[in-house]
Amino acid sequence: MAAIDGLPPLREVIREHELVAKKQLGQNFLLDLNLTAKIARAAGDLTGCDVLEVGPGPGGLTRGLLAEGARKVLAVEKDARCLPALAEIAAHYPGRLEVINGDALEVDVAAHLTPPIKIAANLPYNVGTELLVRWLTPRDWPPFWESLTLMFQKEVAERIVAKPGSKHYGRLALLAQWRAEARIVMVLPPEAFTPAPKVHSAVVHLRALPAPRYPADAKILSEVVAAGFNQRRKMLRASLKGVSPQIEALLEEAGIAPTERAERVSLEQFCTLARIVEAARAK
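Structure (tokenized):
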């Protein structure tokens, strides 16, 4: 990759700019440009697309995204120490890299991007899940993005793609799979990063569906799912009693045994239950 874009290897960049990863910022730098290029390719065809990247650090994935033909990359970086390194990349790709020094949880990124838009990032561990939930729960659907290609701790990635009955199945799986197709496309060992985390990491690719997989009111579905998994070891007739005083009858109407537990209930069943709860409340 260094030979492709003519920029220095990332280890040199980190040494020159004294970029020691900060634990409080959730930083773990991926220095192998072959791997960052592979992650960029996992995002699909980037030509003609704007790409949002959160937490670019020294810019390894940024370089991969630009080399793969992204029309524009908007990089949101909280750590001001990384800005000089990113400025060097911007100079190498005139007009194609915009860097915002700020918190991704606060920046209005849509104002800086033109559709079609993809999101690709080695997300900082401390905000990764919160950002994902925000991207999956906009007020309107379809969202501003077409796809998400995101790196998480492997356990978080497994929670996103989990199926009913597995130990990782829960709210995050239902949230992701209701409105998107989700799959793990790559697993990376700790030693791929500097500093090496204590766990493996994985890249998840999510493609936005044009409409939710099954009809349901988003707020009611979220309420039912949260209640079910907040007490996941309890039977649904107990964990969901706060949702409706007639919950046992509503569960039976949805074809779900009141003695069932949330971890064994499918997305389709939860959506059916959400519709029945909504109808009951409207009476």
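The first strand starts at residue 29 and ends at 30. The chain has two domains: 2-208, 218-282.
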